[in-house]
Structures are given as structure tokens and as C-alpha cells.
Prior knowledge:
Low-confidence stretches: none
Distance between the termini: 57 Å
Mean pLDDT: 89
Radius of gyration: 18 Å
Helix content: 55-70%
Number of helices: 7
Amino acid sequence: MSVFPKPYADLVARLRVTTGFVLVAAFAWFSRPDARSLIFGLPLSVLGLLLRAWASGHLEKDARLATGGPYAYVRNPLYIGTLLVAAGLVLASQRWLLAALFALVFALIYLPAIELEQQHLAKLFPGFAAYAQRVPALWPTLKPARTGQRFRWSLYQHNREYQALLGFLAGAALLIGKVLVLHNP
């Protein structure tokens, strides 16, 4: 049973990229980092990037159900990685307004997108229902299923996950630049 009406989920799935640009603009405008907030926030974002990289190295979109690597622990490691990257950047930004905005976007944009993807995977892969029974959607299990699937750099590159790294580096550079400008009169 769907939590989100399909027309709404379809609409917000198309708005994901546009919403990302709006979030970047809000982040650039409102963030007020200092050296301490960077020390706490940026490592959290790096953990999110590492999770995304690990996941993308196991993902063959629409060709094979990803069940290895982080997919043995949780069905949506890319979204959890994105959430960790955003949480780290918000922590570094020192703006609770941005935290509320990112949480709202995750709830209203990403959760419906996750639901649509789950429906797509269920239609595409007959084994998805059994996989979904074993592996939680968003909260990792401590007892992963062993699948034998291995990380492949070629998948990381094919999935263009390096773009997330470049986006993070741009965000980190913005924050560091703001620290240098705001705290060095």
C-alpha cells in the first residue's frame, strides 16, 4: 500500500533535481560556519559520501537487484548517505533553519521517491519482495545477508558517483571560504 498518492510521488520525483538547486542556494545564502562547526560537520558528510560511494559500487541500475555491500544492511544506502552528507553540511552551517528545510525536503520529496523506486524494483525483480522482507528500508540491520556481491570501481564510475564528491567539495569550499571571510576581519 502506498503512503503517498502516485501523482504526488511522480511530481516530486521530477522536482528532485530542481529542489536540490534551491537547497544549495539556501545553504550558500544562510550558512554561518566557524572552524568548530566545520570540524564536527564535515566528517559526518564524508561518512555519507563514503556510504554513497560504497553503495554505487554495487549498483547496476535496472540490470540486477543490488543486495551486496551496504544493500545487505539497508535497502536505500544512497539516500541514507545523502542524508548524512546533508546533516554534516547543516551541522557545519550552524543554521537550524537549514536543518528544518533539509528535513522537510527529505520527508516531502525523497520519501515519495523512495516509495516509487521500491515499486519499480518490485516490478523489475521477482526477488525484491523477499529481499524487502529481510532488509529494512531506512534503518540498517545489524545482521546483514551475505550475497557475495563485490564492490566494483567501474560501477562507481558508471553511476557517476564522483559528482556527489564534487558537489561536497564545492559545499565544503563554500563553508571554508565563509569561515575565512566571516572570522578574519
